Amino acid sequence: MLAVFTRLCTALLTKLLATVFHGVAPEIHITTRGSDLYWAWTAIFGVSALAFLVIAFLKPPQKRLFAYILFGVTLVATLSNFTMASNLGWVPIGVEWHRENHRVAGDLRQIFYVRYIDW
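Below the sequence we write its predicted structure tokens.
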């Protein structure tokens, strides 16, 4: 139990400090609302993965393959969304078009490469 608590604290601390990547801080990055949305998607995909696993065990062994595949896909999506919600798995990328609006102005933006690993 202590190990789980330590990991949770480490993840939360990493989220607070993870706005710098190798000394470079992007000006356009995930907001608290964006992180909350990723946490909601993580919960939805996690519950779906568990539901597909339960469905797999309710079927005869010869007909479980489809449910196993769905379980695997939703489990990978859960891990991907968890990584993005924790503000991990990103790199700063230079913007192509500069904007005047102060909310989206900046030279660097945060891109989640973990999203493309999920694909």
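The longest strand covers residues 90-94.
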